[in-house]
Specification:
Elements (H helix, E strand, L loop, with lengths): L1 E4 L6 E4 L2 E4 L2 E4 L4 H6 L8 E8 L3 E7 L6 E7 L1 E8 L10 E7 L5 E4 L3 E7 L3 E8 L8 E3 L20 H4 L17
Length: 184
């Protein structure tokens, strides 16, 4: 497995080995031993799958005070996947990074605890798998405005389809400090 840190070094783009032949391909999405050897030692305690249509933006979501790390893979279609550092006291607070995750490139994005996450669907539809390091807790579910100018995210969707929760999300400057993760 190859990996490289993005402009926010805690956010890592992973490229697992794919074995392809005339039948298709095979790849490991998770192997605790191999991931540990590559420096990713976290428990997978919950796995989620979403399906969304073209133009959907989900996010920017995070959880506090029990933050989740997420290993994100696009199983079908193409997404523009985004991570934003929202850790109080971080030197990269408010900065974002993005990567294209597609069924063809097989890349995955590691988004550590303390970062907000979101994605835009750029194909006709997309299925996205999230392996999470902590369970979802509705009481700790948080959202920040996906198009907050502070983040300077160049979303590839002109007229996004949003959930009611995402459409009503506050900007980062409007979020009380106690609702944001601390630098761990």
């Amino acid at each position: 497995m190859r990996s490289r840190a993005l402009m926010l070094p805690e956010v890592v783009l992973l490229e697992p080995e794919r074995h392809e032949d005339q039948r298709g391909f095979f790849m490991e999405l998770w192997n605790a031993e191999r991931f540990r050897a590559a420096g990713f030692d976290f428990p997978v305690v919950q796995v989620n799958l979403s399906r969304s249509r073209k133009g959907v933006i989900r996010g920017l979501h995070h959880q506090w005070p029990e933050p989740q790390g997420k290993l994100v893979a696009c199983l079908q279609g193409e997404i523009y996947d985004v991570a934003v550092d929202i850790r109080r006291g971080s030197p990269t607070f408010g900065r974002s990074v993005a990567a294209m995750l597609t069924e063809d490139n097989g890349r995955m994005l590691w988004i550590p605890p303390g970062f907000a996450h979101g994605f835009a669907v750029v194909s006709e539809s997309a299925q996205v798998l999230y392996a999470c390091s902590a369970p979802y807790r509705r009481a700790y579910d948080r959202v920040i405005c996906y198009d907050d100018p502070e983040f300077a995210i160049d979303w590839p969707v002109a007229e996004p389809i949003l959930s009611a929760k995402d459409a009503a999300a506050p900007r980062l400057a409007e979020v009380p400090p106690e609702a944001l993760p601390e630098l761990l």
